[in-house]
Structure formats: C-alpha cells, structure tokens
Amino acid sequence: MTGNEAIAEGAIQAGCKFYAGYPITPQNELIAYMARRLPEAGGIFIQAEAEVSAINMVFGAAAAGAAAMTSSSSPGISLKQEGISYIAGAELPAVIVNVMRGGPGLGNIWPAQSDYFQATRSGGHGDYHSIVLAPASVQESYDIMRLAFYLAEKYRIPVIILSDGMLGQMMEPVQFSSLSVHQSARKKTWVLTGCRGRRPNIVKSFYMQQGDLEKFNLLLQKKYGVIQQKEERCESLYLDEAEIILVAYGTMARIAKGTMVQLRAKGKKIGFIRPITLWPFPYNIFKKLNVSRKQLKILVIEMSYGQMLDDVKLSVNGKFPVEFLGRSGGGIPSEKEINDKIKSML
Amino acid sequence: MKKIYSRPASLRDISTHYCAGCGHGIVHRLIAEVVDELGIRERIIAVAPVGCAVIAYDYWDFDCSEAAHGRALAVATGIKRVRPENIVFTYQGDGDLAAIGTNETIHAANRGENLTVIFINNAVYGMTGGQMAPTTLAGQKTATTPKGRDVLREGWPLKISEMLAGLPGVKYLERTALYSPQEVIKTKRAITQAFKNQMDNVGFSLVEILSPCPTYWYMAPREALDWIRDVLVKEFPLGKIK
Prior knowledge:
The complex is a heterodimer of chains A (346) and B (242). Chain A has 2 domains: 3-191 and 218-230, 3-Layer(aba) Sandwich (Rossmann fold); 235-345, Rossmann fold (3-Layer(aba) Sandwich). Chain A is 40% helix and 17% strand. Chain A is built from 13 helices and 13 strands. Chain B has one domain: Rossmann fold (3-Layer(aba) Sandwich). Chain B has helices at residues 24-38, 72-82, 94-100, 102-110, 151-154, 160-165, 181-199, 214-217, 221-235; strands at 44-48, 63-66, 87-93, 116-121, 170-177, 204-210, 239-240. In chain B, helix 1 (24-38) crosses helix 7 and helix 3 (94-100) crosses helix 4. The relative contact order of chain B is 0.15. Classes of the chains: A alpha/beta (346), B alpha/beta (242).
C-alpha cells in the first residue's frame, strides 16, 4: 500500500472513530481510503467544505469523546492552524497528518520538509506545542498511528504526523500489527456527553479573568515539560566511532541512511541520527556525544533550507561543528550530493 | 401560595455581564426554559460563539463547548455525528454566523445536519465595539461605517435565513423578535419547535431572533425595542420562512 493508505489504515486500527478532511494533493489517497474504510470500521467520515471546517469538526468530535483525526498537505495545514491552537488550548486529543509539499504559497505538489518550523513551533497563535512524529517508511507510517493516538489521549494534546509527498505516494509492503490497541486507563471525565448524573462539563480555551490564563498556561508548560522528559524518540547508529554523524528525518533519513551504509562499506566512519519525535526534539542523544572527540562533525540534511538545523545546533550547543545540506521546492538532496558534501568535510 | 414563576433549573443564579437592555439575557433564559420543559437538560450540548455571548456557558447549567469565531456549526457537526442521541445546538451572532462563519453555516445546513441554531441578529458587532455586521442596515452608523452603511461600497444587509431557505437540507426557519412580550412568547414557541425538530430527527432548524443592542445602536433600551418594531423588521420581516 502507499504511505498515505498506511497512515489511514494505521489510524483505523489504532481506534480512530472520526475523520474529517478536504482533498489536497499529495494526500488524496488518505481521504479516499478513509471514505471507504472508516465507516466499515464503525467510524464517521465527513468530507468537509473547507480545511478550516475539517479541523473544527475534529475539535467537536474530540470534545464529544471520539478518537478524531484530519489530514492535509502544507497549504491546507496552514489553514488548520487556528483550529490546532484551539485544540491545544482546550486540551483535546486530536491527530493531524501533514503530507508535506513544496512552499511557500501554493508552491508545488512535490515532496518537501519545509513545514518543520510550523509543526514544531506552535504554528498557530499562543504558547503551545503539538507532539510531532516523523515516520520514515510506509511500515512506520502505519505503526506510528498507534503511538499518535496514544500520546494524543495520554496528554490531551494535538499530535502532528509529518509525512511528505514522497513517503505518502510510495508503495511498500506493510505488516499489520496483531497487538491490541492500547486503551487509556484514565476515564475521560471531561467529555461532553450531556450532564446526566454529574456537574456540567465545559470545553473551552477562554480565560477572561485576570491571572486565570497565566495560571492555565503554566499548567500547559508543566505538561510540555513532562512530555520533553519522557517522550523523546530517535533512531541512532554507530555514534561511538563516527567521525561524521548524519542527521535527517522522514524521507531524507532514508536517503541519508543509504549513503551511510555505502560509505561504511568503504571503511568511512559515518554515524546516523534520525529523530522520530521532532517535538519533543531528541536533545539528549546529542548531549550524550563525547565532547573529547575533536574529530566529530555533524551534517544535517533536510528537504528544506535548514529548519531542523536550528534544533540540532541548540542540542550540540557549539561542542561540534554542524554543517548543512538542503534543497527544497521539489529538489531532494541525492546520495551523490550527500557524498560530495561528506568528502568536503573529511 | 403556589409558586408559578421561578428561575429555570438550566439557568445559573449569577449576575449578568450584558449591557442594560441587551437581548442575550432574554434568549438565554428562553433556551433554559425550553430545555427544562422538554426535559432535555441532561442530553443537551451547547456550542457557544465568539462575540458578546462567548461566556454563554457561564449562564447555562448544562454541557457546553466553545468554538472559534464562525466555527460553531463545524464543531456542532463533530459533536452531533459522534453523539446522535444528544441534542446539540449552536448560539451565534450575526458576525459569527453570517460573516466569518458563512461557509460553515451554509454547508452544515446543506448537509441537513440534525442541529438547532439560535441566531441572534442585532445588526451590529457588540463585543468588539459596534462595527458593521453583515446584517447592518443601509445607512446605519457603526464604528466602521461612520457615515452610515453605503450599500454601493459595503453591500446590502445579508438575509442569510432567506438564502438558506432554498436548501433541501433545511427543514425549519423562522424569524422572530424581542420587541414586546408577545414577540418574546412567539420566540419561545419557535425555539421549542427548533429543539423538537431535532428530537424527532427532522433536520436542520434555525431561529433568527431580532435582538436589541441599545449600546451600539446608541439608544435607550425602550427606544431600541421600538427601533426593531418600526425599522429592523422592515428589512428582516418576521414569521416562518420555511
């Protein structure tokens, strides 16, 4: 199946019961798959009249207690930012899939990774974060949906999946999981069900009285601190012996990893870090790198002009040189370009 | 002695933040009375707007959600589809429903969502300081039409209820007003009908209520009621539209 279909099937098997979306390339297989499969699986599918409506339908469905999701691609995700901010402010669980394409503006429909800042730095207004997950294969696109719904519910937070046009369109075999879906032990006492036998519930992000919003924001910050402590995830290879560590995520990580394997076969000491959570960014894997290794250099590779680069620099904090290779707007750094860049660094 | 009039159970005993002569308090109470009378307090879920009634949930004693400005009917669609056994309504002003949320309004109506909409038309933006609304009358002075609304520049008052009447998914549309006790009683009757329709799975029902905003009409409360009767109803005629 395609990466887009794997995300849809992964979501359904993870317990997604509500999907609202709007067609946009290159994620159209996802909405079509949901239209076909979600009702069969006992869920609700709505083709919304607009991206803005889709994310607000997700807000309503989440407030009513459903595991809810929407998907789009870059320009559509920009339109959803208001809704994501409200979801963060109302502390609702929701999953938002961004199959990234080229920008700015209408850009083009080719794969890109230029929405990293938007996803990891709030995107909408206000001091909030979404958890951001980046799969790098069709199998992982399927697998990561369980994690996405689990984290969304555990922390009552928007979870963004950053895929891209390459990963979304690519076909690979997928092994379905036989594990049962995690059921949250916590009872959702905040859900709108009608106030039978209890005090009324209110789902809101509005705090009019002076001081109330600051108190609420401090609670959010505390939650984000816990997530940063507990939820960093990454894949890493050959860090102890590496002279150059390649850092990439998603589609770019696959190409970088392929290059690494070839160069290692030739005896070059190349290591590899692939962040899986982009927020919280896996700072700790960089902190653990041995400072006494004067030889070590880091190469960040992205389908953007250097967005994750900022997080790597913050993590490394000047201890090692950090270099960058990136293209965006349809261009993808090739193995040859990566090889040439590495040669210039050795 | 027999008690014949009291605060509805669905209305909390707190002081109002609305201006003197505002219609929101009347409609909040009417909704609470209807919810009590239909026995649906434990089934109802309200969606509050952005605008003067943003904290409507502080007055009603039942489950409520907020919605971003204009998005109430998208949020309500999500809630109702997940919980068809609940009774879901939106409470929206003219800016929310007929300007920034026009898209959500038309498409929720066109899908025939089994929802109830209480639409407060007071021909002005109240919360933000009396700017032009889509329903502001020709010539009406507001903060953003200081010389009066010029229809050739700012367009005509938008009759969204009449626009919605052509959609097959819309089952009930009525325009009422609050300018006299008789009209308030008619408004309550219309609200009751709109909720009953949802309970009977009839489909999309909307009650448009012409409501006074003395503050931004720059009138005394009594004058504001007379202005609805003498002027506003000429642009927005009362009665059942569909």
